[in-house]
Amino acid sequence: MSRAAIGLDLGGTELRAAIVSESGRVLAHAQVKTEAAAGPDAVIAQMAALARSVRAERPDLEILGVGIGAPGPLDSDTGIAIAPPTLAGWRDVPLRDRLAEALSMPVVLDNDGHAAALGEWRFGSGAGLRHFVYVTVSTGIGGGVVCDGRLVRGRRGLAGHVGHMTIVEDGPACACGNHGCWEALASGTALGHEARRAVAADPTSRLAALVGDAPATARHVTAAAREGDAASLALMAEEGRRLGIGIANLLHLYSPERIVLGGGLSSAFDLFAPAMRATIAARAMPEFRAVPVEPSALGLEVGVIGAAALVLAPDPGRGPVQPVFASASI
Amino acid sequence: MSRAAIGLDLGGTELRAAIVSESGRVLAHAQVKTEAAAGPDAVIAQMAALARSVRAERPDLEILGVGIGAPGPLDSDTGIAIAPPTLAGWRDVPLRDRLAEALSMPVVLDNDGHAAALGEWRFGSGAGLRHFVYVTVSTGIGGGVVCDGRLVRGRRGLAGHVGHMTIVEDGPACACGNHGCWEALASGTALGHEARRAVAADPTSRLAALVGDAPATARHVTAAAREGDAASLALMAEEGRRLGIGIANLLHLYSPERIVLGGGLSSAFDLFAPAMRATIAARAMPEFRAVPVEPSALGLEVGVIGAAALVLAPDPGRGPVQPVFASASI
């Protein structure tokens, strides 16, 4: 019987589940809108139901366990979601153990940045490397770091909050409470703020036409830039510059062999890459400048593949997944 | 026969050597001015001579090898000093192998930040921890990181250049070629710049009197602050604020259980600590705020103890020191 794992990618907007093979292929997939406002009981019920539904599609496989990538901060050692800002009413929820009980399956929990980094390292652009940084640029900026062949976990598994390094001392406010964080300057949300400013400054632009009456988002900027809109191309160049500042920092701090960018904004990689690369060349010390920076190979599937990788190919620092029930089955 | 190692701390100003016991005690010590302008041959000869001189003081000990902490960038895997900015004419010098040949002893090379972190972890304020960051604040800012019980090394051993993260996008120029680096804002050198500005602004201050005709340095600021000089106390508070920004970043990036500050400026720890702690409380996410930040327990000896620790207690990621000559002796 072929072996596989269930990956659950818990986001504030979407909840995704997949059956993932031992070679990192998605064999079944399902997703629903996360009931983010309904509290932990409702969301945990959604997670269990979605896991059962993908499981039902592939009864032929032996399922080794369930991996969850969830928004931080969370304590991966104890399996507790501490206080995810995008999920209302969640405070110190023992997510790992509650789902293990609901499904009678071994469950592993890690933050979505670590899980995605693990997936990209085991099955994507980081395969075969000893030192590797994965950065997800979407609503926020998160990520995970592999150094010397192991995931960098730190106290309570809280290392790698790369979006929350100050890069502009007096910069804009961040969701974390600080200001001038990389996330506050270079996330998709931050690009959306810049887009709204650009639309207000020039309501005759192609960007303004695409946006119409909706609030401007990073998606509008990408679309308008692809049509040659000058203001949007300038916004993408500024986005690349801001990303480059943070990436130069990561090179100095972790010395990876490669940095991979995923998340929604990585679909615009070609648009911001020139400015990003110029900024890295200007800011990184010579020994770090040749390190490749590339878009994710796993794309939108990185979340579920990474979550499943927590079970299929955990990093050596964590050890193998232990079944929590003798008769594991769903 | 008791066992020990020789630690060599190669700085741009001073070269220090010590015999260090297996429990991290300095048993013999010597130092000379580094012939920093004379090129690698002269300095390597100094290093060999100083190692022999401390060895001669303790012929009763079995010497396991020689550890060198040297300024980066260097490649600790191959033992090559790439381009230390404080040593004239050094470019890709195979320092480890040249000293091993000169002394007929096994030699280990690492950058001074990693070596000091290892020393503080094995024998000082980091003892017993699994996650630990050491930061040296002196002429520049360097450091080393222990995560999950191992030194974070990265590609070519170049991880942990904590002084070269941008924290102020448009900040002052840094020795590394970038601008706005933590080092350019919060090192002893940076504090010296601020002191010269303060002296020019108010030549009647106690600081100005202490400085006299010499160029103002961090040391003057510390001395005047201890005498209650208002301008110097303000400079120390600003120094603490700048240190706090970088430390909050390190908490998010590495999630240590403790951060230890060493280097010359750590002797003024009590003067900058209140502002530093207030900044950390304002900028770090709640999960990170309770992490202790403390001055080094090893003080000025951290360099030689750390260098010796490369031999006595290497991190698990490197494996034991291998003798390079069958008849190791000096």
UniProtKB/TrEMBL annotation, chains A, B:
<dbReference type="InterPro" id="IPR000600">
    <property type="entry name" value="ROK"/>
</dbReference>
<dbReference type="InterPro" id="IPR043129">
    <property type="entry name" value="ATPase_NBD"/>
</dbReference>
<dbReference type="Pfam" id="PF00480">
    <property type="entry name" value="ROK"/>
</dbReference>
<protein>
    <submittedName>
        <fullName>ROK family protein</fullName>
    </submittedName>
</protein>
<dbReference type="InterPro" id="IPR049874">
    <property type="entry name" value="ROK_cs"/>
</dbReference>
